[in-house]
Write a structure and sequence with these properties.
single chain, 158 residues, 4 strands
């Protein structure tokens, strides 16, 4: 089953990015018991200029960032999806990733581009699931979930 709709906005399509995205999001769906659900995620790979426009328009922050997540549902609603069998297709939300920032952060943190991109995908996914990292306790829960997915995929910090 395909869980992602991948778009490249002002960026050349890249098979490695698409393949990694499918692999990572499939693992997220597996870990969160969403495999049998009729849910998809929209993922947009873009540039610093384009993500800055989204950030300004939707968050009133006039700068580029690494990843933006736009959930369609509250955390409680997502939990209901896990329990119910839905025949109506649902979009969990959108994840927008600035590939230039991913590259810079991979270099800064001393690990591969693939590892940083995988982390951005998992991080965005958990925002769509209703998790955040504003409070320390919430951050701890979100980080544990992110690290489990990456560990299950054998995508480790280098």
């Amino acid at each position: 089953m395909k869980y992602t709709d991948i778009e490249y906005l002002n960026i050349e399509p890249n098979k490695m990015y698409s393949d990694l995205t499918e692999k990572v999001i499939n693992k997220c769906f597996e870990v969160e018991n969403l495999m049998e659900k009729n849910i998809t995620i929209s993922i947009i790979f873009t540039t610093p200029v384009d993500i800055q426009k989204y950030n300004k328009e939707y968050r009133n922050v006039d700068r580029a960032t690494d990843v933006l997540s736009f959930p369609m549902f509250e955390k409680e609603e997502v939990e209901k999806f896990k329990e119910e069998k839905s025949i109506v297709p649902e979009v969990l939300g959108d994840i927008i990733i600035n590939l230039s920032q991913v590259k810079m952060q991979a270099d800064e943190y001393g690990h591969s581009f693939e590892r940083e991109l995988a982390y951005m995908l998992v991080h965005g996914f958990y925002h769509l699931m209703g998790y955040d990292h504003i409070e320390d306790e919430d951050k701890k829960i979100m980080r544990e979930k992110e690290e489990k997915v990456l560990k299950d995929l054998n995508i480790n910090r280098e």
